[in-house]
Each structure stands twice: as C-alpha cells, then as structure tokens.
C-alpha cells in the first residue's frame, strides 16, 4: 500500500481572532485565498462562529489556523517567524507598513549588511514576520 507524502504546514493558534487575521493576511498578497474554513457550532466546544479549523494560502504557501477554545498562558514568539522575500522596494515598504500597523517593530526597515533592505515586525495579532528585499 502506497503511503501519502508527508506535508508540514505552519499552524497558527489564535484566541478568537483567527478569521480577522486570515482576512488581513489574504488582503496583503495578490496570490492569496481562504482555502477552507469550518466553524464551531452552537454546541461548541468553542464560541459559535469562531474558527474551528481553517486553511489559507499566501503566495502559494498554505497555512492553517484555529481559534483555541482553551485559554493558554502563551502567545506567538519571534523565535518562529514567517519570512518574505520581496521583489521590489515598493513591495517591502507596503508589506512592512501594513504588518507593523498596530503591531511592533523589532528591526525597522534598513540595510543591515546581510541585506540591502530588511525589516522584522510582530503584527497586530502577535505573529512575527521578517521581510527581505531580494538583491
């Protein structure tokens, strides 16, 4: 019996803001879409209408997310980040500005020796993004 190829997918756990985050992220990229979404019903265990499980794609990369119905004492950390290779200065400026809005800048856009232009932010949801301008 042939086995299915293994896939590794980035999985983001939110507490009530998964759909808001997905909508925001898919608005930033031309090649982006919500692939599938299932929601909690009235019988739970999560709040009715929140994301039980969803898959979305950004520039050909699939990610998954949920709204955790269990409160936890941890969030996202910059030790794990999403890395974007930008093709133009306009693209890196636009994405950095959008992701930094209501978020926090870890490394402002600039030349750091390893890159002509690089920036690192935590977005409004706490997800960490590194943006690099391809040389």
Automatic annotation (TrEMBL):
InterPro entries: 3_dmu_93_MTrfase (IPR009725), Glyas_Bleomycin-R_OHBP_Dase (IPR029068), PhnB-like (IPR028973). Pfam families: 3-dmu-9_3-mt. Residues 6-131 form the PhnB-like domain. PANTHER family: PHNB-LIKE DOMAIN-CONTAINING PROTEIN, PROTEIN YJDN-RELATED. This is VOC family protein. It comes from Streptomyces xanthochromogenes.
């Amino acid at each position: 019996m042939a086995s299915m190829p293994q896939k590794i997918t980035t999985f983001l756990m939110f507490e009530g803001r998964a759909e808001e985050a997905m909508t925001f992220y898919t608005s930033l990229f031309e090649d982006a879409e919500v692939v599938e979404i299932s929601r909690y019903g009235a019988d739970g265990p999560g709040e009715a209408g929140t994301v039980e499980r969803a898959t979305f794609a950004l520039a050909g990369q699939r990610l998954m997310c949920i709204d955790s119905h269990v409160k936890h004492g941890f969030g996202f950390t910059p030790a794990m980040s999403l890395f974007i290779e930008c093709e133009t200065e306009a693209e890196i400026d636009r994405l950095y500005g959008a992701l930094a809005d209501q978020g926090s800048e870890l490394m402002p856009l600039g030349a750091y020796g390893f890159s002509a232009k690089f920036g690192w932010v935590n977005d409004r949801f706490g997800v960490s993004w590194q943006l690099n301008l391809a040389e």
